[in-house]
Automatic annotation (TrEMBL):
Substrate binds at residues 8-15, 21-22, 60, 87-90, 98, 114-115, 180-181. Catalyzes the interconversion of 2-phosphoglycerate and 3-phosphoglycerate. The gene is gpmA. The active site is at H9, E87. Pathway: Carbohydrate degradation; glycolysis; pyruvate from D-glyceraldehyde 3-phosphate: step 3/5. GO terms for molecular function: phosphoglycerate mutase activity. This is 2,3-bisphosphoglycerate-dependent phosphoglycerate mutase. The record marks H179 as: Transition state stabilizer. PANTHER family: PHOSPHOGLYCERATE MUTASE (PTHR11931). Its EC number is 5.4.2.11.
Length: 238
């Protein structure tokens, strides 16, 4: 049975500081490192040993992947990095304090920007401090100025179809260590979550979400390995 393990990166410095991060390359905190290691320990304890792993090109996800695999004694498996698994781009909100942004623009407006499916935040100004158009990681790619979850899904899904799904169809156990929104995009696709319900799906940091799939890559079961930090999961179709 194909097994998919989704692992959101451990707590980052900007998670701790309550700032919109998006594509900015922020590292893990000490707590985030511990969460990543614990995620790997949980995988090993339950015999969930990945054959292959995929991650983004952002440090917090890469280090989470490496720390988890090391803890699971699987650091030797192939790991593929791709920008299409990056976090959602938060546009003009990037770097801002979330509480202060809510005070300036109103909590309802910020909730729409953060949690709605298809309404992106204002775009990031070209040439600004967080403009990554010249970053060598994105050579040949079109760096977005802002993204909604819908736009995030539109870049994640082709990569899922071309790179990740074939490995699962080969009956592999696959780890995807990425970000809250790129993983929510995968969850939305797999569980066919309605646009207005995906807002309620949250993936905790550093807690492996194990999804067993059938031959058609439809979910058969799903569970978090750390039950004490679990979040509600979408229903699995009968």
């Amino acid at each position: 049975m194909p097994t998919l393990i989704l692992l959101r990166h451990g707590q980052s410095q900007w998670n701790l500081e309550n700032r919109f991060t998006g594509w900015v390359d922020v590292d893990l905190t000490t707590e985030g490192e511990a969460q990543a290691r614990r995620g790997g320990e949980l995988m090993a304890e339950q015999g969930l040993l990945p054959d292959e792993a995929f991650t983004s090109v952002q440090t917090r996800a890469i280090r989470t992947c490496n720390l988890a695999l090391d803890a699971a004694r699987r650091s030797w498996i192939p790991v593929t990095k791709d920008w299409r698994l990056n976090e959602r781009h938060y546009g003009g909100l990037t770097g801002l304090d979330k509480t202060e942004t809510a005070r300036l623009h109103g909590e309802e407006q910020v909730k729409v920007w953060r949690r709605s499916y298809d309404t992106p935040p204002p775009p990031l100004e070209a040439g600004s401090e967080h403009d990554l158009s010249g970053d060598p990681r994105y050579a040949g790619a079109t760096v977005p100025a802002t993204e909604s979850l819908k736009l995030t899904l539109e870049r994640v899904l082709p990569y899922w179809t071309s790179a990740i799904a074939p490995r699962l169809k080969a009956d592999k156990t696959v780890l995807v260590a990425a970000h809250g929104n790129s993983l929510r995009a995968i969850v939305k696709h797999l569980f066919q979550v309605a646009d207005d319900r995906i807002v309620g799906v949250e993936i905790p940091t550093g807690n492996p979400l194990v999804i067993e799939l059938n031959a058609d890559l439809q979910p058969v079961s799903a569970r978090y390995l750390d039950e004490g930090r679990a979040q509600a999961l979408p229903e699995i179709a009968a």
